[in-house]
Design goal:
3 strands; elongated
């Protein structure tokens, strides 16, 4: 409950945008008085950082649609994978 309210949504949205993909994070439901109190709020975020669906704090199942055309369109509009500078650094694992 320390970092959850401050960073949970922000980190999920940033990871989705940085990696140009749908990103989901799950969290246990919040149980007050337990040894570890989770923040909750499992979430699915699209590649643009838009929250598709978010759970609340309790036990819950959430569903969201993943549209691969959204991923394709984003990667065409922001082509980071085609802008690699292989002349400056090696991208092959040795």
């Amino acid at each position: 409950m320390t970092t959850g309210p401050l960073h949970w949504e922000l980190l999920q949205r940033a990871r989705a945008v940085d990696n140009q993909l749908y990103f989901s994070m799950i969290s246990p439901a919040r149980v007050e008085g337990s040894g570890y109190v989770a923040y909750g709020h499992s979430m699915l975020v699209d590649p643009w950082g838009k929250i598709i669906v978010s759970a609340q704090t309790g036990e819950e199942i959430i569903y969201g649609d993943v549209d691969l055309e959204v991923v394709k369109n984003m990667r065409q509009q922001i082509p980071v994978l085609t802008q690699l500078r292989k002349d400056l650094y090696d991208t092959v694992k040795k």
